[in-house]
Design brief:
By secondary structure, this protein is α/β, with parallel strands linked by helices. The strands form two sheets. It has an eight-stranded parallel sheet with strand order 3-10-9-8-7-6-5-4. Helix 2 crosses helix 3. The longest helix has 15 residues. The chain starts with a strand and ends with a helix.
């Protein structure tokens, strides 16, 4: 398993990370999920992805159990929160800490930055970033990042609002795959900015939960290799069986930087299928937007704005 630098943090993480969402699915029983997590760690994956909202907390609970017996110290543990208000962010973070059975999460990210108002809510005086900065000072978390899957321009705006508030993110997570290269591309628009600012690039949805494979243009290994060929610190992939875990290790073990000719051929194969975004439905629909379906997760709007409405 190759390891890469996590942006400017000085941390080393596995080039492939274990996605947390699949670990809590109903079709994956608990014993299998624990076996997959521990097998992944034993074989060299040290980056663990999760989120407060995955499967009503089941994903975090299962990961917490798997990280007992000394496994916690072997991994770089990441989770995400949806709260935009300070109060809701604190509540969700404390719940994640309990579920994951740890007193410190290595990286916590603001989840689903999908709307232009999200950065403003997060960086309000009573916003979620104040909660995470406080948690970092208290030793509950070590690094802070953000995620999103909708539009690269919203990622760029999040970075701009962070700069306006004198804040530097450690990581940013986004979809990076063979289809993204052709349509509203995070890889083309956001990744260069992150590299410039030494913010770690976390790739997700390399196969878009298998949807990209339905285009019948690329193989799973090609999908993973494409994402690994970008300046990613880690490519997070979902695993719901031991066979899929083996596939991830095969991709890591066989990866070599793609030549210009290989890259050109791969992009040529996917250009037509990618042109309208249908194999990246998270960009063109609300199907993947869990915070849109559950607006209460975001918490209250800033008090100062609510008071203006009452005047």
């Amino acid at each position: 398993m190759p390891y890469r630098e996590l942006g400017g943090t000085g941390e080393k993480v596995s080039s492939i990370g274990l996605g947390g969402w699949h670990l809590g699915l109903k079709k994956v029983d608990e014993s299998l999920s624990l076996r997959m997590i521990r097998s992944a760690i034993d074989r060299g994956i040290n980056f663990m992805d999760n989120s407060w909202d995955y499967n009503q907390g089941v994903s975090e609970i299962r990961m917490g159990k798997a990280l007992r017996d000394g496994y916690r110290k072997k991994v770089f543990l990441m989770s995400k929160i949806d709260g935009r208000s300070k109060q809701e962010a604190i509540r969700q973070l404390d719940e994640s800490l309990r579920r994951l059975e740890t007193d410190c999460i290595d990286l916590v990210q603001h989840h689903e930055i999908l709307r232009y108002e999200d950065p403003h809510r997060i960086f309000d005086e009573q916003g979620a970033n104040a909660a995470l900065v406080g948690a970092r000072k208290a030793g509950k978390i070590r690094y802070i990042g953000f995620t999103g899957h909708k539009d690269p321009h919203i990622h760029l705006y999040m970075l701009e609002v962070a700069r306006q508030n004198g804040f530097h993110f450690d990581t940013a997570q986004m979809p990076l795959n063979v289809m993204d290269a052709h349509f509203r591309s995070f890889g083309k628009l956001v990744v260069p900015e992150l590299v410039k600012e030494k913010i770690a690039v976390l790739g997700m949805k390399p196969m878009a939960n298998g949807i990209i494979l339905k285009s019948k243009t690329v193989t799973p290994i090609e999908c993973l290799h494409f994402a690994m060929n970008l300046p990613t610190s880690v490519v997070i992939t979902g695993v719901d069986s031991m066979e899929i875990l083996d596939q991830a290790f095969e991709a890591a073990g066989t990866f070599r930087p793609l030549s210009d000719a290989q890259l050109k051929a791969l992009l040529a194969k996917t250009e037509k299928a990618a042109s309208r975004g249908e194999f990246e439905p998270f960009k063109i629909s609300s199907i993947f937007d869990s915070t849109a379906e559950n607006p209460a997760w975001l918490g209250e709007e800033p008090e100062r704005l609510q008071s203006l409405m009452k005047q």
